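User: Predict structure, ligand nicotinamide-adenine-dinucleotide.
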Amino acid sequence: MSRLAGKVALVTGGSAGLGAAICTRFANAGADVWVADLDPPVDAGQYIKTDVSDRDQLEAAFLKALKIAGRIDLLVSNAAIQPHGITLDDTTPELLDRVFKVNTHAVFYGLQLAGCYMARGGSVINTSSFVGKIGVPNCPSYAASKAAVDHLTRVGAIELASKGIRVNAVAPGLVMTPAVTGIPDNPEIGFMHARIPMGRIPSPDEIAPVFEFLASDEASFVTGAVIPVDGGVAAGWKEYELKPPTWWK
Ligand SMILES: NC(=O)c1ccc[n+]([C@@H]2O[C@H](COP(=O)([O-])OP(=O)(O)OC[C@H]3O[C@@H](n4cnc5c(N)ncnc54)[C@H](O)[C@@H]3O)[C@@H](O)[C@H]2O)c1
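Assistant: Predicted complex:
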């Protein structure tokens, strides 16, 4: 497959989990892939140490990839922190600021920098989450940060269309990444398993192909879209016990 041949990609949060699967997928499709992350990738990919919440660091990552690779065609704004299990009451101002800086400000900066440095025909793909669409308790900062990502995707698509850059988002449901599997006895896994209409929890490899499609020229008229890749969980519940009315036989 060489669907992304000749394209240069910058992937934030590309060292682990979903970001790493996206990098592998893009590289296998022929892209020249650069990882911007706090930590280096496990395989020795092209890596730029970056804290995406710092606009100067993110811009420096763009400039470094641009200088060496000569162009940037694809930006995946994927890095995020996921503080679940923290109620509205327990969310401190510091936590709220940190979550928004990493998860939302970085996406905003990515759109600004894409407008400055990306080639015409480019594609920005933001990683959202099902919790940006449906309400869930005990992760208000994370959920709100992802709802903001959805809307930034729409307004970014409108503003960058004149520069020939498409902007879309992928909204996964629960995915088996270190952020999820690293929590001992994580109750979210059983809870979600029982509710996802398709009845299973995917690996990152089942999410990454949708990023590849959005990055490719096959998605040339797709912009402003937030695509759920969640086994149906944002569409509704798997089970809902209901009794027919008495007039129904
Ligand atoms: N795993 C899930 O169930 C799930 C569900 C829906 C959405 N998502 C989203 O998918 C994306 C990837 O999640 P994941 O589960 O693979 O996460 P992960 O924690 O496994 O990996 C996140 C990566 O981002 C990097 N990172 C964190 N903060 C950073 C910063 N300030 N600057 C640069 N890099 C930073 C980490 O070093 C790590 O490599 C996130 O946007 C997350 O919100 C995940």
